[in-house]
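Two proteins, back to back. First:
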Amino acid sequence: MLTDESKYWFALLRGPGIGPVLARKLLDYFGGAAAVFAGSAQHWQALGCKGEALDWLRSPDWSQVAVDEEWLAGDNHHFLTCFDDAWPAQLQQVVGAPVALYAIGDIDLLKLPQLAIVGSRNPTESGRGAAMEFGKHLAAKGLVVTSGLALGIDAASHEGALAAEGLTIAVCGTGLDRVYPRRNHGLAKQIAEKGLLLSEFPVGTPVLAHNFPKRNRIISALSLGTLVVEAALRSGSLITARYATEQGREVFAMPGSIHNPLARGCHQLIRDGAKLVENAEHILEELAPQLGHAGRQMAAASTVAGEAVSSAAVDEVESDSPLLAYIEYDPVSVDELVERSGLTAAEVSSMLVMLELDGVVTKTTSGQFLRK
């Protein structure tokens, strides 16, 4: 809802040189956004404003504010400030947290327990599949799956949550009038309809590299914990994990093959104290104390279901194709399978088709195969 105070909030967020820390100082001192602009240059300077920030507070560009006002009139568009009842409590204790958020969708999701899932933008097929399964399983158990709408692991986790008809939040690194990356436009639309899109950046904010680490601190802060599925040693996902640690949140990491460079970041996190997880039950068990009685029920139900699924899978594997003994969790080519198994190329190809149909193995984009 647009109020007279709203336009001053929009103006404050657009002020050059006025980041979240300075904005919070101004708001705490003056008591509100309109009061900030009614203040004096002497007070502004004493609080740390200088140069362009002072010029803006004296004479903001109201035409830019009009863009925000027009956006807010859109269907299911929301603007939350740190003074609102709907403001997520998780952000209140975070140093440098935003003072306001733009949102599209169901803002009540911010009151529910969340689990962040992040990782590589160019994951392996098994990594992408794992992210989707984690997202699906955790959302089905009642956790909101929170991520950053990026390609790869982020998108897969959102898709998993939606596939389970669960809830998901996408924290964006641009203004909410645009979708980045464009390939996720359809996914963003689904999230806006069934979940929540969130950003601290004003309408019209383009793709800027330095805004994505800022987005990451919100992803981790909103969540009880952060799961890193696949990440190289210099991955932005490790920034999210670092923020989670600094914010007192749990950090989980999925191990992978020592030959997979996208597993090295996860292995580093585990060496640094992150909790190694192989399935969603490990996360639910760890979070159960924070979730109370409901969390313990989640973990117990998941463990029973997981054991049943694992048992069934073992029975199926034992009675299935002899080729399966030669397929591991690292990609392997048809030629390698022929060499390992002693079967003909035709026999291997035929068995691979059946294993794919049974959902036991998956084919990578490079034409190799691995266990699911």
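And the second protein:
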Amino acid sequence: MTDHPTRAFKILTAAQWAQFEADGVFHGAPIDLADGYIHLSTADQVAGTLAKHFADQSGLVIAEIDLTTVAEFVRWEETRGGALFPHVYGVLPISAVCSVRQNPSG
């Protein structure tokens, strides 16, 4: 993960966050399960991800993820305009969550 951020963000619905808390692990949203990995965004990518995939949704939760705790499962892959996004090929443990905030818009 040389030269990549050590933190990334997962945008979740309130129901997904509640399930994540209850289970202690997150297996992925429907799009994650379909693609075979958990989509994350860097701090610079969150706004674009919110605009592109969550524009009309409210009650979203943004979980900050410490990538060092799941480093062996993270791949940085090109997507949207050639930008590198962190993808987790595995489950996210709740212990990887550093902080959580409600999305101020939506």
